[in-house]
User: What shape does this take?
Amino acid sequence: MPELPEVETTRRGIEPHVRGRVVARVRVREPRLRWRVPRSLSRELPGQRIDAVRRRAKYLLLDTGAGSALLHLGMSGSLRLVREAMPAGPHDHVDIVLDNGWSLRLNDPRRFGSLLWTRGDPLEHPLLAGLGPEPLGAGFDGAGLHARARGRRVAIKPFLMDSRTVVGVGNIYASEALFRAGIHPARAAGRISLARMERLAAAAREVLEDALRAGGTTLRDYSDVEGAPGYFAQDLRVYGREGLPCLRCGAPLRAIVLGQRSTYYCARCQR
DNA sequence: ACTGGCTCCTGAGGGC
DNA sequence: TGCCCTCAGGAGCCAG
Assistant: This one.
């Protein structure tokens, strides 16, 4: 579930509580996430001070002198800060217990998330090494999108959701960005002009920034570190609005499936 | 190299 | 009420 705004909201929420703290221990109740939580994490993270809390794509990185914990929330994951003694509930799979009595608690009903440990530069980890640019960073623009799309027949929406194109744009924000840019989600990526790709890059950045300001989008189970929802759901213009009038032209919004993912758009405004 | 499809898992919601 | 079906915010991996 979480896309970039939700992961970044989580990062900002935990950073002041976690940075500079020493990990007292790691409690793994259920190691069977997307990949098994490695024993090296429980062995090597305790005793380490967390020097930085970073985000790359939808991965959170907890950096220490000995290595980095690499955390992904998958579709249904969330992090909470709780008192260490707080009884664990269903799907509370892992606690990273800090030296001040607080715990970073990972809850993930579907277990599509992951928690890994890497000793080297985490950005060189195989899961991160091939990722495209950050959408809110300097390396993302229309020219890059246009160059990368050259000759590609894949629909623009799954192209935009491909983490080698740009990271952090998930199913909600892909539909929202294409609506804002006026581009039909099924249009072949290679058949979009440079000028329209520039609009798309700007639209993607804007929708992610707007969502970040609202604390992310809560559809069902996303919540921030304090347990509060994100408020961007009320600002979604097309996602989940099949049959409702387009906010721009009034035509009923449509839903199709692209790349096995629900896609929402206005057939009149998006070409 | 691209493309599309499958997969992991639990829970919510709708229809009957 | 209960049962069954479909769908869900990700993304790595595979076959063709």
